[in-house]
Amino acid sequence: VDGQVDALMRKAADALSDAGWDVVEAEIPDARAAWEVWLNLLINESAQTGGADVDHLVSDDYKAAMGAAGQFSTPADLKGFLGLMQARLGFIRQWQLLFEDFPVVLAPTFLTRTMPKGFDALATPDQKAKLWANDIAFMGLFNLLGLPCAVTPIGMVEGAPHGIQCVAGRYREDMALAAAEAIEAGLGR
Predict the structure, then answer these.
(1) Which spans in 19-59 are helix H?
(2) CB half-sphere exposure, 38, CA atoms < 13 A
(3) What DSSP line would sit under 100-147, residue for residue?
(4) Are 59 and 122 in contact (CB under 8 A)?
(5) What is the pTM of this model?
(6) DSSP 3-state of 98
(7) pLDDT tens digit string along 65-112?
């Protein structure tokens, strides 16, 4: 996580603490491994449901983004796909157990500074790779797990806004929203 983004996240955690929440740093299940499962599922499902039949329905930017994501995935046959689904269930279990001790997890929305206006994240192969391999990792992770997230603004870095994800256990949207509300109130947003 970018240092300035991390500093904003810590201010958000302090605001949550000031609102009476017990805030501690804790280890989370292996986010990188879960992200890899999500990306492999995304690409393999897209390969099965996409292709020439739907190419005319999606933008060139979408095709470029998915092409970049494809470099981080491995084609899966039925057995491989079922293995990915089994891994997903394992991560869901790990996170649900985490939520028994910690009702909300704070995570960055974007791991780096927000891209400046007019920046094209798909302009070069390196930028596309960085987007998928690092910057949006936590967004994909919580989609994979089916966890409710409330995103709230936490401040600006070099004129660009940043947000934090308040992530709760399955079916606990109320917890995610309550944490986001407390952070917003504490930061004066």
Answers:
(1) 31-49
(2) 21
(3) HH-SEEEEESSSSPPPPTT--TTSSHHHHHHIIIIITHHHHHHHHHT-
(4) no
(5) 0.84
(6) helix
(7) 777 676 777 788 899 999 999 999 999 999 999 999 999 999 988 888
